[in-house]
């Protein structure tokens, strides 16, 4: 079966090749690497109020603007960097979101120091392994869950910004804390099988 004929999640616009590649190659695969998790957290917080595809198109811009998502370097950024990034067309030029990314980098490091890694901290909210949801149609997808609410509340308590329960749930989906591929999507079983060994 060619990749164009494969069944995929109902939310995916299959006319956009880059979106299909993201769905097939990244979305829902469990991530335990802190640098990748910082990238995902940064992109999700930038997405608040916008479409995910808008952010996906600017991903390379974010990578350049935020130093390949090197959390230590981003945490050192200052007001001068915020002003510079406000002129950067490669990202969403929202002062609060840019400042939030720098703030979140500092908070991310706080968590790394306390828990050994951000991954250790994050995965505790799903008991250390992906939750697999039974989803048949678009209306089955939740916007928030008990776990995303608890995760977001804890992040807020620790000083993170632009990471409410809905944004955090999108992050959980993206980095595989939940497998929200639809039941008929070819990636669902592949990801389960790959991560059961």
Please describe what this structure looks like.
The chain is mainly alpha-helical. It has a single domain (17-195), classed as Hypothetical protein, domain 2 (Endonuclease III, domain 1). 54% of the residues lie in helices and 2% in strands. The chain contains 11 helices and 2 strands; from the N terminus they run ααααααααβααβα. A two-stranded parallel ribbon has the order 1-2. The two termini are 26 Å apart. The model has no long low-confidence stretch (mean pLDDT 95).
Keywords:
mainly alpha; two-stranded parallel ribbon; single chain; 197 residues; Endonuclease III, domain 1; 11 helices
What is the count of DSSP helices, taking H or I runs of 4+ residues? 11
Low-confidence stretches: none
Counting helices, strands and paired strands, the structural category is mainly alpha
CATH class identity: Mainly Alpha
CATH superfamily: Hypothetical protein, domain 2
Reported by name, the CATH topology is Endonuclease III, domain 1
Summarize the helix and strand pattern as letters.
HHHHHHHHEHHEH
Terminal CA distance reads 26 Å
Largest sheet: 2 strands, parallel
How many domains, in number, for the residues?
A: 1
Give the strand order of the largest sheet, numbering strands 1, 2, ... along the chain.
1-2
Instruction: State the total count of DSSP E strands.
Output: 2
CATH architecture type: Orthogonal Bundle
**Mean of the pLDDT scores?**
95
Percent range for helical residues?
Answer: 40-55%
- How much of the sequence lies in strands comes to under 5%
Could you say which overall geometry the principal axes of the C-alpha atoms support? globular
Q: Radius of gyration in whole Å, from Cα? A: 17 Å
């Amino acid at each position: 079966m060619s990749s164009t004929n494969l069944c995929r999640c109902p939310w995916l616009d299959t006319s956009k090749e880059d979106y299909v590649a993201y769905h097939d190659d990244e979305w829902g695969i469990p991530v335990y690497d802190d640098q990748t998790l910082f990238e995902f957290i940064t992109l999700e917080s930038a997405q608040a109020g916008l479409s995910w595809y808008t952010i996906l198109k600017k991903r390379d811009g974010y990578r350049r603007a935020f130093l390949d998502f090197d959390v230590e370097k981003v945490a050192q950024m200052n007001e001068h960097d915020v002003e510079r990034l406000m002129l950067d067309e490669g990202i969403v030029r929202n002062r609060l979101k840019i400042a939030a990314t720098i703030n979140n980098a500092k908070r991310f490091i706080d968590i790394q120091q306390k828990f050994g890694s951000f991954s250790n901290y994050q995965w505790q909210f799903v008991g250390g392994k992906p939750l697999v949801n039974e989803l048949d149609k678009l209306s089955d997808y939740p916007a928030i869950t008990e776990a995303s609410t608890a995760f977001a509340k804890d992040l807020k308590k620790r000083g993170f910004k632009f990471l409410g329960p809905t944004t955090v749930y999108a992050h959980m989906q993206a980095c595989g804390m939940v497998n929200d591929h639809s039941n008929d999507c070819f990636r669902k079983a592949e990801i389960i099988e790959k991560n059961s060994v």
